[in-house]
Amino acid sequence: MPYLAAHSAIIDCGKAIISFPEMNVTLTCKKASNIRFSAIAITDPPDFISEFPEVFPPIKITELPPLRKVNHHLNLMDKELDPSPKLYTVPDKIIPAYCQIIDDWKAKGIIYSSEANNPVNVFPKPKPNSQICLLVDLFPRNAITIKDRGPIPNHSMILRAVARAKYRSTIELSNWYFQVRVSPEDARHNTIKTPFGSFACRVMLQGDTNAPATAM
Predict the structure, then answer these.
(1) 61 and 168 share a domain?
(2) Domain containing 53: what range?
(3) Which of 197, 9, 23 is nearest to 111 (CA)?
């Protein structure tokens, strides 16, 4: 609202338009429009996919990420507790794809066989593009995790920053959490259970109560 007032904007709710007489610009508000916050629509956006092939590879790459300055830590109150939840049922039609992901992770060193305590269930979820997304039920482990009270981003500040951007798009951060390493001393406690065995995982799991703070 301060921006609209400073630029003498005229809002017509009946016609769903916002006019800026001084700039000779009129915005039409449309539901689910990607340009509803912009005065100028880019009709010929740059080809970022071709310009940055290392960021947008044509084939999803599965590799064990390197250890960095910031790695994920497991601050568990009880590392010996063994809730051993019941293994989830997996539909037969997606078991081959699920098994292939687990085999790839083992081959790349992302997971290794383990009988450590606190295993949590991993289950596959089919996506609209026919790929498989692995989800983790971390409720049992989160209950014994010391919470990292990191600051939550302010949504209003994010929206204002996005409104001033020259280019905007939607990018699926595929396997974002899986690209963050768990500290080596904590990996043996980062355990999962699948129909193909129990494993310790060297990457951060989506659903970990402290994962968002580490990722940000």
Answers:
(1) yes
(2) 47-215
(3) 197
* CA distance linking residue 72 with residue 170, whole number of Å: 26
Q: HSE-up of 125 (CA within 13 Å, CB side)?
A: 9
CA distance 13 to 51: 41
For residues 180 and 203, membership in a common domain is answered with: yes
Distance in angstroms (rounded) separating the CA atoms of residues 109 and 104 = 9
Q: Give the Cα separation of 126 and 119 in Å (integer).
A: 23
Q: How many CB atoms lie within 10 A of CB 16?
A: 13
Residue owning tokens 């809730």: 83
What is the pLDDT tens value at each position of the chain, 216 positions in all? 677 788 888 888 778 888 888 888 888 876 554 444 444 555 577 787 888 887 777 777 788 999 999 999 999 887 776 667 788 899 999 999 999 999 999 999 999 998 767 788 998 988 887 788 888 999 988 988 999 877 777 888 888 888 887 777 766 666 778 889 999 999 999 999 999 999 999 999 988 999 888 887
Domain count, the chain: 2
Q: Mark whether 63 and 145 lie in a shared domain.
A: yes
Q: What pTM was computed for the model?
A: 0.68
Alpha-carbon distance of 180 to 74, in angstroms, equals 13
Q: Any idea which residue has 């790349």 for tokens?
A: 108
208 and 170 co-located in one domain: yes
